[in-house]
Amino acid sequence: MNHIAAVEEQIVTERLRGKLNEVNEAAKEHLSSVQDYVNFNLQQAYFKCAYECFDRRRRQQEIGNCVEHCSVPVLTAQNVVESEMAKFQERLQRSLMVCQDKYEAGKLQRGQANAMADMESCVNSSIDDNIKTLPQLVGKLKIALGIRDSFQ
Predict the structure, then answer these.
(1) 136 burial class (0-12, 13-18, 19+ CB within 10 angstroms)?
(2) What is the mean pLDDT of residues 92-99?
(3) 75 pLDDT band (50/70/90 cuts)?
(4) Is the full-model pTM beyond 0.85?
(5) Closest CA to 43 of 79, 75, 69
(6) Residue 151's pLDDT band (boundaries 50, 70, 90)?
(7) Which are the contacts of 36, defined by CB distance < 8 A and separation ≥ 6?
(8) CA 67 to chain centre
(9) Which residues contact 38 (CB under 8 A, 6 or more apart)?
(10) pLDDT by residue (tens digit) across 10-54?
């Protein structure tokens, strides 16, 4: 690989890294209301519930069972969010793997410069398409968690 091609590849790599950061920022932004609900509303309800479990008239086992019962809504919500985010990441990874495969095939057929430009275009399109799914993902999470839009 000549020096110019190496520099061009490095530039494209940096742009792609920036595009991946864009996905992370978009996910944080879109999911902030869901995370706030889980981290504040559900956590607060958990601590209030758990506090009520500590009664001197109860045996230790009863207190433990009560506290465990209080944690169910928070843990369930966290599992739902983690599961949906894992699916989102898997879809993104699969689409980026398709771009990588196209890049490898393009290198063999057309040469480095065109293949790199095609990969950058593919990655940009893939990331943009995945970012566009975030509002639907958040809507699905809000329904699953019973979050009303009035919550912010």
Answers:
(1) exposed
(2) 94
(3) very high
(4) no
(5) 75
(6) very low
(7) 152
(8) 29
(9) 74, 77, 78, 81, 145
(10) 777 788 888 889 999 999 999 999 999 999 999 999 999 999 999
Structure tokens of 83?
A: 């599961």
Cα(38)–Cα(68) distance, integer angstroms: 17
Would you call 143 helix, strand, or coil by DSSP?
Answer: helix
Retrieve residue 31's tokens: 């999911």
SS3 (DSSP) at 6: helix
Write out the two tokens for 38.
């889980």
Length of the chain: 152
Rg of the chain over Cα atoms, rounded to whole angstroms, equals 23
**Tokens 């095939």, residue located:** 105
Cα–Cα distance, 22 to 18 (Å, whole number)? 6
Average pLDDT over residues 87-99: 95
Q: DSSP label at 146?
A: T
Q: Give the three-state DSSP class for 111.
A: coil
